[in-house]
Amino acid sequence: MLYAGKWDRAGLDYQALKNQWHVVARADEVSAERPKAVRLLGEELVLWRDGAGQIHAWKDYCGHRGAKLSLGCVKKGEIECPYHGWRFDAGGQCTRVPAHPDQATPSSARLIFRHHAAERYGLIWASLDAPQRPLPVFPEWEDDSFRKVFAGPYRYMGNALRSVENFLDASHFPFVHANLNGDPDAPEPLPDYQVFKDEHGLRTSEISVFQPYGDHRGIPVTARYTYSVFNPTTAYFVKKTGDTERFCTFLNATPVDEAECVIWLIVAINFGADLSEEKILYRQDMVFEQDRLIVESQRPARLPLDIQQEMHVRSDRLGIEYRRWIKELGLRADSPNHAEPRAAALLN
């Protein structure tokens, strides 16, 4: 099927994603008084803060008459439904029914659906099921020698896993980012590289590519990339553009639905103190707009996890391992004792 609607919940891609951490908002988008509506894997969620400032992610649903809690407000550290003013505490317990203030509040244990939520790196993360991996590590976040800049969010009518695989693909640089990250008239062969997998996810050996406009300074460089994938929708690279210059990108692709995603980006650089934020964002906006056009054109919308469905060459090694890893995570969620066979022949 080329086009699809909601996630096939039996699919291995959905199984691999439902118990992972996903970015759903910037932390400053959720105030102490006002909830925020978001969508994750086709589910409508409400984000809100209790009296201690702790973030919560619930199904956007009031168990009384089904109204959206995101249309309400937060009062005295409790979320209030916009329909009848019922309030719920951080544990999901109904604490107030204005129409019957003297009666015991009804049980809400079966009708308030609480998901997992966390706050880190100025972002809010959510997981529909108990997360099977820790929150990703952003290595430069605590390093004061790196300037951090938030870019986006970029909304794609494309699949989140397709978007992450695109981010991990260095061989498209001369064509999608012509005269910026590569020369379309003289594209250099991508050197062979290695992919490693451990309990932290995937990472590559260093990949060198010539770039006419290698970083925000607008100078030609031979950039040296090292990619990492911390969970299926969180990826990262360190890009060396000089002896000490480092341009790092921490990317999260929120799977809104199977054919829609939101790209959240944090750039960390340790050079160019005179570079304005506008100039940094201009480059990111341009690159991710170029990527958007390609990702939205890909068919099928969902990333094929059967590697026989598309053609592959050696430069696709990271993409192949990424697909294999997602399939493995999906099989593990569906059947913990399943072990996936390797298909190394396609990499040779």
> What is the CA–CA distance across the termini?
30 Å
**Beta fraction:** 25-35%
SSE order, one letter for each helix or strand? HEEEEEEEEEEEHHEEEEEEEHH
- Largest β-sheet summary: 8 strands, antiparallel
The helix-and-strand class reads alpha+beta
Total strand count, please?
18
Rg, Cα atoms, Å: 22 Å
Helix content: 10-25%
| Rounded average pLDDT | 92
Overall shape: globular
- Ranges where pLDDT stays below 50 over 5 or more residues in a row are 338-348
Tally of separate helices: 5
Key terms:
single chain, 348 residues, alpha+beta, eight-stranded antiparallel sheet, six-stranded antiparallel sheet, 5 helices, 31% strand, globular
Outline the structure in words.
The protein has 348 residues and is an alpha+beta fold. The protein has helices spanning 12-17, 160-167, 173-176, 277-297, 317-334; strands spanning 22-26, 36-40, 43-49, 55-59, 73-75, 78-80, 87-88, 94-96, 114-120, 123-127, 147-156, 195-198, 201-204, 207-211, 221-231, 234-240, 246-257, 260-269. The strands form three sheets. Strands 11, 12, 13, 14, 15, 16, 17 and 18 form an eight-stranded antiparallel beta sheet that branches. Strands 1-10-9-4-3-2 form a six-stranded antiparallel beta sheet, with no helix packed on it. The protein has a four-stranded antiparallel beta sheet with strand order 5-6-7-8, with no helix packed on it. Strand 17 and strand 18 form a beta hairpin. The longest helix is centred in the last third of the chain and has 21 residues, at 277-297. It is globular, with a radius of gyration of 22 Å. It starts with 11 loop residues before the first helix and ends in a 14-residue tail after the last helix. The model is unreliable at 338-348 (pLDDT under 50).
